[in-house]
């Protein structure tokens, strides 16, 4: 509705923001200056301990330097009371003694009706509470006592009892002059389908009143006392007062406790909330018998940035958590998410508190999982990824979920976290087995490991004698440097990069960073390298002479040239691995009479290398060796000579 000009301005002038906010916060005496209207407190909109919430009482505005919430007295009431604009105006006007101008007839009629329904609900609360004291409710009282609810708890939660009668509440309200239409409108009774008298919605049940953020009774929850009853728990039907998907049990008190720094806990039911509050966890709420809705999520986030979902350890509880992930992903914002505390199987919060106490439950809260961890668990738990197809299916499922996230920054961080988890699953970091040379044991057969051999002079002199100058090391450096400058190519060459052996630990770490960060920008990748390998790692890599003179390094940004360079260097490394495999196979054959054949094979390889070198191809000459087509350079030829010397040994007869 439209309000008369000047009404809102006068309302804001009359309503002291410090008094309005003072009902929800505790002012910091050291930072605040009451005389100047300069007030500070922990923010009521997010969980914190420092006083970052500032009120300028003279200007009538508030601002939080933590969560950036801001507004005036009306917006403060709207957010803290979870009400609409007009309801906030009415609350403030009532506090300062102003009369809100009449709305249009329909709106006023609707507001009046809601007030009447709220009055009927309060009468029902008192009726049910009185019934709990009667003799017919002895079974209900015994049950509540077994659940640890004493007289003070019954008073606090306003617990009642609906007698086992068809018209108990109906007759009571009609006797008080309440119209049939209002009783039906409040959801307290239902008309008979057989033409008989209306009957009560709740019969033979323990009654839990449900109140909104303003403290009005809007609905009831009832637990059946008859074990044969079809519905163990029953809620009021939806009415003009009660929207199940927009309500939370214990919302008003939980919001106040969360504003004082307690963790906001979302449990499954009424008794869970009561047990938590009794144990000191006062910021506890529960949805009302259904899965959490988007509206309820937004309500939770208005109270705390990271509510903790405390779910029963049974299958139903875990399914509820997993369903909630899909709802929450598109709604995530920076600093706004969920965490999950999964109870031991077969236990609810009351069970855990009784068995192990509040300390155990606090430990569970401290270990609550971030949502990305639960998403990963959902997609991987109980599954085997022993084929490329299964791994691809996992990647597809995770990508589909991550794309639901609208915030690009959060989407990027989720992608990185999932990539790290995937790395841990598929590449757990096992050390690669080292090739072990063997020598004949003698005429009796069997094998012994060769004793460690000191490097020979020719080996030290060769390019392969020092890793820093080896051909393979040089190629690795070129590949890694090229991909650091063009990380968008990592995915294209992922398989080849994974196969790089990287005897240099720094190269191995850089390779792993590239594989985990293939969707990162070049700047972001450099930051990660500096963070994990130190500030000098990149400079040391890019300033090596053989790296610096590579065309794609001299001309960064030329993606086509970089792609060709990486492809060529990876192919050469793969060919070199073929050569290594042939040599390894030959050395494995050094047993008994096979040694002459092995020596012949290696000598032929060496002669082939000599012929290629003599053909005049120069220092950068490369040539094929053996049937596998492996190409080696002059430096690798020197290493081959060294190998021929190292495999000589003295045979049992004393002959070389």
Automatic annotation (TrEMBL):
A Pfam family it matches: Zn_ribbon_DnaG
Family matches, as SUPFAM superfamilies: DNA primase core, Zinc beta-ribbon
Keyword Glycoprotein: no
Entry's cofactor comment: Binds 1 zinc ion per monomer.
Zn finger (CHC2-type) start-end: 43-67
Needed co-factor(s): Zn(2+)
Group of enzyme by EC: transferase
Domain Toprim: 262-343
Enzyme Commission number: 2.7.7.101
Catalytic activity: ssDNA + n NTP = ssDNA/pppN(pN)n-1 hybrid + (n-1) diphosphate
Signal sequence annotation: none
UniProt keyword annotation of Ion transport present: no
UniProt record similarity statement: Belongs to the DnaG primase family.
Function: RNA polymerase that catalyzes the synthesis of short RNA molecules used as primers for DNA polymerase during DNA replication.
Subunit (UniProt): Monomer. Interacts with DnaB.
Stated name of the protein: DNA primase
Species in which this protein is naturally found: Sulfitobacter aestuarii
Lineage summary: Bacteria, Pseudomonadati, Pseudomonadota, Alphaproteobacteria, Rhodobacterales
Gene symbol of the encoding locus: dnaG
